[in-house]
Write a structure and sequence with these properties.
The protein has 469 residues and is of the alpha+beta class. It has 14 helices and 15 strands. It is elongated, with a radius of gyration of 27 Å. Bound molecules: aspartyl-adenosine-5'-monophosphate (AMO).
Length: 469
């Protein structure tokens, strides 16, 4: 479960269950108070075995009617599964199981011999979704009952992995000098196109929920913060209803001064390499829990293979050729859709960058060098994607830092520069060339955990049909 060795006591417990399990030999004979969920309650008459679980482990509590308040004993004996219970008692080594002569004894196990206890909250019955029993329920019912679904070991492990990915990603960027920022989520102008905005009223002024920290992370860099990152929500009023789209998602963004597209692709691949290396080194226990579940369901298990650096770069023009040669229908200037990506992934199954997209397909803030033209003579940009298999993980690019070109880009895309002065003004007093990217956290987690749907790795997903819980 979780490493809780450094957790301090709280008002409800002197130790976590993980601490008792890991330090059982030192704690034998000592009194501890612990608290957790009742996984099973067994025993009749004068004795009772209560299997407790908290976020860090499991332990058996042994209750004897003679050793404690009788009413409490009886209440616990009839407690429903998942009720929360606090117990106090002394740690004892469990009687070792009988093993045939000559065979080694298994490692010692410990239990708590209870002297007092209290039920903190009795669980209702029946449980709407099983926690420890393997009853199949669909994703929708699980999400409706996420508070219980999260208690299942493999679901819990997936969210621990999510937290680790964010921790390792953050940790890595800090080593490269990036600083964490928070940009506003209530905004007045779209950065990613005007059709997928959620409108709102900001007092008397129309406003929107932010689609991306794009314009603000750039302003932070223009303002001299030099290298920034943000992990925050992005909102898109897209009507997609797919395994990889949500209407609210967490975007992991960076932006850096004096950098171009190739420089930030380097940051991205080094960060992913670090995340994968750290998970492989520290979190195999979580992967094992996920795999135990997958195996029980007959699903393919996962292994954390640290990707080699550098990731392949397949410029857009080459990608079009690969798709065409693979029999896909696509022309220069078309979007590369999932079924096209399958053809590319057949040659590049792992992480791969697709740099140098046509400028006409990229947002106004992407940089283009007027001399860089594609196979059919169309203008190329310094925008790129990072894909894994058929899924896009990231978009990014070098940004346009020449204010006159930036304003022309806005006009070319039928946007009014007047609506963006808060942004373009940031370029009028000396603007460093800069670049960055935005990575969809849930999509990266899908790759790491083998989840088939982003909803599996998002606590409370927001999609077209779901706004609660
Ligand atoms: P883009 O719009 O491509 O780029 O988004 C960046 C990444 O965010 C994820 N993503 C989504 N995840 C789940 N549901 C969605 N509806 C969704 N939309 C996007 C994807 C995608 O690759 N400002 C640029 C980034 C930049 O250039 O820095 C941007 O937002 O993984």
């Amino acid at each position: 479960m979780r490493d809780s060795s450094a957790w301090k006591p709280t008002s409800y417990r002197t130790h976590t269950l993980g601490q008792v399990v890991d330090n059982g030999a030192d704690l034998v004979g000592k009194e501890v108070s612990v608290a957790g969920y009742a996984e099973t309650v067994r025993g009749r008459g004068a004795i009772c075995f209560l299997m407790l679980r908290d976020g860090t482990g499991h332990i058996q509590a042994f209750l004897k009617k003679d050793n404690m308040d009788e009413a409490t004993f009886e209440a616990i004996q009839s407690a429903s599964r998942e009720s929360t219970i606090q117990v106090t008692g002394s740690v004892a080594q469990k009687r070792p199981p009988k093993v045939p002569e000559g065979e080694p004894l298994p490692p010692a196990e410990y239990e708590i011999q209870v002297s007092s206890a209290q039920i903190l909250s009795m669980a209702g019955t029946p449980l709407p979704v099983g926690v420890t029993d393997d009853v199949h329920v669909g994703l929708d019912i699980r999400l409706d009952n996420r508070h219980l679904d999260l208690r299942r070991a493999h679901v819990n492990a997936m969210f621990q992995l999510r937290s680790k990915v964010l921790q390792y990603g953050r940790e890595y960027l800090i080593t490269e000098g990036f600083q964490e920022i928070n940009s506003p989520k209530i905004i007045a102008s779209a950065s990613e196109g005007g059709t997928n905005l959620f409108p709102m009223m900001y007092f008397d002024t129309p406003a929107f929920l932010s689609q991306s920290p794009q314009l603000y992370k750039q302003l932070a860099v223009l303002g001299g913060l030099e290298r920034v990152f943000e992990i925050g929500p992005a909102f898109r009023a897209e009507k997609h209803d797919t395994y990889r789209h949500l209407n609210e998602f967490i975007s992991f963004d960076i932006e850096g001064a004096w950098m171009n597209d190739e420089d930030v692709m380097g940051v991205q691949e080094r960060m992913i390499h670090h995340v994968w290396s750290q998970v492989a080194a520290n979190d195999q226990n979580l992967i094992d829990i996920v795999n135990e579940y997958k195996a029980s369901q007959g699903q393919e298990t996962i292994s954390v293979e640290v990707p080699e650096l550098p990731f392949p770069r397949i410029p857009y023009c080459d990608a079009i050729e690969i798709v065409q040669k693979g029999g896909g229908e696509i022309e220069w200037g078309d979007d590369i859709e999932s079924h096209h990506c399958d053809l590319i992934a057949a040659q590049y199954p792992g992480f791969h960058f697709l740099p140098r997209w046509p400028m006409a397909m990229k947002p106004f803030y992407i940089f283009h060098d007027e001399n860089e033209k594609g196979t059919t003579g169309g203008q190329l940009s310094r925008g790129f994607d990072l894909n894994y298999g058929r899924d896009e993980m990231t978009s990014g690019g070098q940004r346009e830092h020449r204010v006159d070109v930036l304003e022309q880009n806005l006009r070319n895309m039928d946007l009014n520069p007047e609506d963006f002065t808060f942004y373009t003004d940031g370029f009028r007093y000396g603007a460093p060339p800069h670049a960055g990217w935005g990575l969809g956290v849930a999509r990266l987690l899908m790759v790491l955990t083998g989840a088939g749907n982003v909803r599996e790795v998002v606590l409370f997903p927001r999609d077209r049909s779901r706004v609660t819980p």
